[in-house]
Amino acid sequence: MKRRIAVLALAALLVLSLAACGGKKADDTTIRVGATPAPHAAILEVAKELLAKEGYTLDIVEYDDYVTPNDSLEDGSLDANYFQHITYMNEFNVEHGTHMVSVAGIHYEPFGLYAGKTASLAELADGAQIAVPNDGTNEARALLLLEQEGLIKLKEGVGLSATKSDVAENPHDYEIIELAADQLPSRLQDVDMAVINGNYAIDAGLKVSDAVAVEAATGEAAEAYVNVLAVKEGNENNAGIQALVKALESEQVRTYIEETYDGAVVPLF
């Protein structure tokens, strides 16, 4: 009887041990990544197929805002996220005490100035309403685009920290309206023009080729606004993360980006 009990106990321990090993293997081969729908989640779908061939399961979790996917990365709900540019990530770390790092710069999305009630820059009337994103770096980026087109002039040296209060010259008294980035496409017809983030423009069916002005895709802009694959500090060398980087930097992903987005998304690898 005692021998039978001992055998049963040993068998139970063996089953638990195998289950534990099986669970660890599943954890190690599943990569949970947060992303906004377009273009990030769509690009990840291409990487998903490549990762499957390497024995990894990519679990793509979609978000419609810029805060939750960072909070989820910090608390461990996600293994990585892919939705933000490097400047936004760095500022988020400072403001929220998070510990995100970039493991790869994947692409750049030129900002576009899109026509709403007014069809062209030449037709903009004095006092016209121009909407811009209301979050830190994206607002600065939008204002720099307006400056690039000669609509306003910013204070010397404000650069990526520019806000509406840093407009030094506004000869036509344009009304700059600050809105949440995800609201800009739906509010486009309520204003004369709007500067819209690349991913939200894509979601709304807007083409960068139709924009009345586009952010220059060289130098500082591409460097400051490269969209990154982010992880929590300390996880940079995780095998699954490195496999995901390899997949995202593949020729298959490059080809998909170039053939799908017609210049609205520019690969940087």
Describe this structure in words.
- This protein has helices at residues 2-29, 37-53, 68-74, 86-96, 136-148, 184-187, 198-203, 220-224, 239-248, 251-261, and strands at 30-35, 57-62, 80-85, 100-108, 112-115, 129-133, 153-154, 167-169, 175-179, 193-196, 213-214, 226-232, 266-267.
- The protein has 269 residues and is of the alpha/beta class.
- β1 (30-35), α2 (37-53) and β2 (57-62) form a beta-alpha-beta unit.
- The strands form three sheets. It has a six-stranded mixed β-sheet with strand order 2-1-3-12-4-13, sandwiched between helices. It has a five-stranded mixed β-sheet with strand order 9-6-10-5-11.
- Residues 1-26 have low confidence and may be disordered.
